[in-house]
Amino acid sequence: MSSFKACRDLYERIVAKGRSKRLALIAVYNKLLKQAFASAKSGLIYEDTYRSTLVKS
């Protein structure tokens, strides 16, 4: 799943719950900021297909 699709899905999921579009955009911004800072902190390149070993599927 591409980063763009993941952001769009998050946005649509929040709006579908009846939340405001502004709140949904803020949630998407926060998601992208967390990814950017995590990448900068770890020094690793962002991968769309990355799955944490801590999360059980």
Please give a structural write-up.
The protein is an all-alpha fold. The protein has one domain (3-42). It has helices at 3-16, 21-42. Helix 1 packs antiparallel against helix 2. The chain is elongated. The mean pLDDT is 87.
Count of individual beta strands: 0
Number of domains: 1
The dominant shape is elongated
Largest sheet: none
Straight-line distance between termini? 16 Å
- What count of helical segments does DSSP give? 2
The radius of gyration is 13 Å
Oligomer designation? single chain
Q: Unreliable segments (pLDDT under 50, ≥5 consecutive)?
A: none
What's the helix-strand series? HH
Q: What portion of residues is helical?
A: 55-70%
User: Could you report the average pLDDT, rounded to the nearest whole number?
Assistant: 87
Structural class: mainly alpha
- Our estimate of the beta-strand percent is under 5%
List keywords for this structure.
57 residues, mainly alpha, 2 helices, elongated
What's the structural blueprint in terms of helices and strands?
Layout: H1 3-16, H2 21-42
Task: Please provide a brief summary of the model.
63% of the residues lie in helices and 0% in strands. The two termini are 16 Å apart.
